[in-house]
Amino acid sequence: xxxxxxxxxxxxxxxxxxxxxxxxxxxxxxxxxxxxxxxxxxxxxxxxxxxxxxxxxxxxxxxxxxxxxxxxxxxxxxxxxxxxxxxxxxxxxxxxxxxxxxxxxxxxxxxxxxxxxxxxxxxxxxxxxxxxxxxxxxxxxxxxxxxxxxxx
Length: 152
Known about the structure:
The chain is an all-alpha fold. About 85% of the residues lie in helices and about 0% in strands.
């Protein structure tokens, strides 16, 4: 095997692993969005009352909670579509959309800590920060993964 062929094979192995992690990450994000979105859209009062972090930001608004649920479901569809197709432009667009959402979400909570102790606020911001780190990591993987041939 020539050096160039070995290099292409090695790059393909990395790309294959990157694609597998990328697909798994997109599916994971989509499942979270489907779960949260369905809960918000179908049982908005339960979502508001049963999650302490949410209930501390009154007042409850059924309309806005249901709309947020619909938007989370829509984001889940985009992430699932990107996982299914795994075409780089689609993947990057879906991850940037999720990153925009998660960044604004963590920024809000980082700047509205008055309802929480310092420890609670820290845990909350660090936990929500994972929603920023995951799409960033997946975007790095997307740079390494080439556009695949359709699965089949």
